[in-house]
Amino acid sequence: MESALVTIVDYGVGNLKSIANMFQRIGVPSRLVSRPEELSEATKILLPGVGAFDAGMSALHERGLVDVLNERATIARVPVLGICLGMQLLAESSEEGKLAGLGWIPGRSLRFAFVSPTPPLKVPHMGWNIVVPKRPSPLFSAVPMPRRFYFVHSYHLACERAEDILATTEYGIEFVSAVARDNVYGVQFHPEKSHKFGMAVLKAFVELP
């Protein structure tokens, strides 16, 4: 198969066509892979995802992708970007399920819980919202201000380590909307639905060393 700069993990859970189309729009070659051997030489990995935590982890296990993902991320240390559910799978666990996550970002995904917000806030959090970086990162350096992205989610990642928090967003509470630890990155929003803002993030990911 022809080599590609970005390898998109196809494990049956994700908006893959939109993501591939966004990479095409910014002139970046990408490919969808679903077998472990196809991931073994990947140099940039995107882990998408929509839906439930346990369903996502089960799909990764059923396709034999967990071991090769661990090797690529923790030994080969290639850049990895998790999107939406893909970001939550980077963590250790979730209130939504019983299975263990990939465990690359210490923490746990929690369902939004509000204390009498006025007016009442709906779950899932859906629509455009502002992302505020908490430290410098190439992932957001070229994103035009204000940094607005499109969200659709009911759970958010609570990090054990403050230094893993890359950005936050306000929705009733301040929640983690992006994480980064060494070569592993995650964004809770959908860059493929976020127009020029999402294009800037994906381009920055591609340009990571």
Task: Describe the protein.
This protein is α/β, with parallel strands linked by helices. The protein has one domain (6-206): Rossmann fold, CATH 3.40.50. It is 26% helix and 29% strand. It has helices spanning 16-25, 36-39, 53-62, 66-75, 85-88, 138-141, 195-206, and strands spanning 6-9, 30-33, 45-47, 80-83, 93-94, 107-111, 125-130, 132-133, 148-153, 155-159, 165-171, 173-181, 184-187. The chain is globular, with a radius of gyration of 16 Å. 44% of the residues are buried. The model has no long low-confidence stretch (mean pLDDT 95).
List the helices and strands and how they pair.
Layout lengths: L5 E4 L6 H10 L4 E4 L2 H4 L5 E3 L5 H10 L3 H10 L4 E4 L1 H4 L4 E2 L12 E5 L13 E6 L1 E2 L4 H4 L6 E6 L1 E5 L5 E7 L1 E9 L2 E4 L7 H12 L3
Q: What keywords describe this structure?
A:
26% helix; three-stranded mixed beta sheet; 209 residues; Rossmann fold; eight-stranded mixed beta sheet; alpha/beta
User: Structural class, please?
Assistant: alpha/beta
Largest sheet: 8 strands, mixed
Pattern of helices and strands: EHEHEHHEHEEEEHEEEEEH
- Shape field: globular
Query: Which strand order do you get reading across the main beta sheet?
Result: 2-1-3-4-13-12-11-8
CATH class category = Alpha Beta
Mean pLDDT: 95
Helix tally equals: 7
| CATH architecture grouping | 3-Layer(aba) Sandwich
**Low-confidence runs (pLDDT<50, min 5 residues)?**
none
**What is the straight-line distance between the termini?**
24 Å
Domain count, please report it.
1
Helix content: 25-40%
Strand element count? 13
**How large, in whole angstroms, is the Cα Rg?**
16 Å
Q: How is the CATH topology named?
A: Rossmann fold
- How much of the polypeptide forms β-strand, as a percent range? 25-35%
Q: Name the CATH homologous superfamily.
A: Class I glutamine amidotransferase (GATase) domain
